[in-house]
Design a protein that fits this description.
This protein has helices at about 40-55, 60-85, 90-100, 100-110, 115-135, 160-175, and strands at about 135-145, 145-155, 180-185, 195. It has about 220 residues and is of the alpha+beta class. The protein has a domain at about 115-205: GMP Synthetase, Chain A, domain 3, CATH 3.30.300. The protein is globular and about 55 Å long. This is NifU family protein.
Length: about 220
């Protein structure tokens, strides 16, 4: 089974370099005492994904009923989220979109107020100053289906370049989990190069459980 139906985990690894150009993005509110932070949410999503995978691995009517129950709950939660967004003003929608978990859920239920192109472009601009500090540069070339292509100039040893690639990849997939791949546009002719194999991106991809899709 793919990522848990409740929204998919956050991209793992070191956070992309700080910095932004233009107006800063909305800042998510601090996590109140006793609530789950992003790391704790990611751990529970991974746990839920593992448990659901085990359930699906056991054939039989009980398994079918359990999966159907999860799918039904996901549909109900998706509708509840849609109603919240209907009642929310523009400022609240922006704050919700800046929250990693809520953003993943909105993408899962096809409710995110910003198109994927806008989210990815903003993410690339946020990580760009950090890349420039290391003597490189990055810009979004475009999005084709579920693949984003960026033009990345990186100086230094292979390890340094790989670190920048990881930062860009995580920045992009963190705001657009519906994407499956980030490709680096070639400096000259030739084919684009994927930053990483597809099977390493599952943590940032939206859940494969169709239960969460709104009809």
């Amino acid at each position: 089974m793919g990522d848990a139906c409740c929204g998919g985990g956050a991209a793992s690894g070191t956070a992309p370099p700080a910095g932004t150009t233009g107006a800063p993005p909305p800042v998510p509110p601090a996590v109140p005492t006793g609530r789950l932070d992003d790391a704790a949410v990611g751990e529970r999503l991974a746990r839920a994904d593992d448990l659901l995978g085990r359930v699906e691995g056991v054939a039989g009517p009980t398994t079918e009923a359990a999966v159907a129950a999860v799918q039904t709950l996901a549909e109900i939660y998706g509708e509840a989220l849609a109603r919240v967004l209907d009642l929310a003003g523009e400022e609240l929608r922006a704050r919700m979109g800046a929250d990693e978990l809520l953003a993943h859920l909105m993408v899962l239920h096809e409710l995110h107020p910003e198109p994927v192109e806008a989210r990815v472009a903003a993410a690339v601009e946020r990580v760009r100053p950090g890349v420039q500090e290391h003597g490189g540069d990055v810009e979004l070339v475009g999005i084709d289906g579920t693949v984003a292509t960026v033009r990345l100039q990186a100086k230094g040893c292979g390890t340094s370049a790989a670190t920048l690639e990881d930062a860009v990849r995580e920045a992009v997939l963190g705001v657009a989990p519906e994407l499956t791949e980030v490709r680096r546009a070639p400096a000259g002719g030739g084919s684009d190069q994927a930053f990483v194999p597809l099977d390493t991106l599952t943590v940032a991809r939206p859940p494969s459980v169709t239960a969460g899709e709104r009809t």
